[in-house]
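Notes from the 1:1 (GR / supervisor)

We went over the backlog. Supervisor wanted to see one worked example end to end before approving the batch request, so GR pasted a single chain during the call. The sequence is below; no edits were made to it. Supervisor asked that the structure be written out right there so they could see what the output format looks like.
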Amino acid sequence: MAGPAVVLLSGGLDSATTLAIAREEGFAPYALSFRYGQRHALEVEAARAVAQQLGAARHVVAEIDLRAFGGSALTSDLPVPTGRREAEIGRGIPATYVPARNTIFLSYALGWAEVLGTDHIYLGVNALDYSGYPDCRPEYIRAYEVMARLATRAGTEGGRSLRIHTPLIGLTKAEIVRRGLALGVDFSLTRTCYQPDSQGRACGVCDACLLRLKGFAEAGAVDPVEYRGS
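Structure output shown during the call:
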């Protein structure tokens, strides 16, 4: 066993696959999720189920309120983009971008990693089939690692270097689906939709749903979650 690693776990298919990869690579996954005022808070319960299914050593749900700032369709009443073509999804930064979200989440993960005595954080960002978010790019991840060395006792006194593992960053959504299935991820437990209904059914038309459906179709697999109208 390589020791503990903090895994950021949203409850979606990417982060679930990332947790499975961390475990496969010998780490004891310490899963970290956030209830941050997101309109799709159902994902938090999905994260609990995924953490249990994949054998996380511990699962923490941190409570923060990004609705206090708004600025995103996920943390305010702004409309969620729907029905966009594939070429549109990756063009520009969409309304579902939550300002500085990954920086905030990684800072929590960094604090927990220092307490656990580990230099390893896993993050399920993707730079291919993604929605145009600036904090999903490799250059952002490398810059954060540099900052972490300057900002922590482990880095300044211990001479240690944080590593942010991003095993999905160069994969297509179809490749992520195949990897997750091979690792035994139960995708029926995951939730991706930005605007599920009161019964938890996915809308099938937001960017997150469209990318997910595309990934399963290209992987030759059936998405096991329920969609409205299906």
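Supervisor's comment: The CA atoms of residues 98 and 173 lie 21 Å apart.
Batch request approved.
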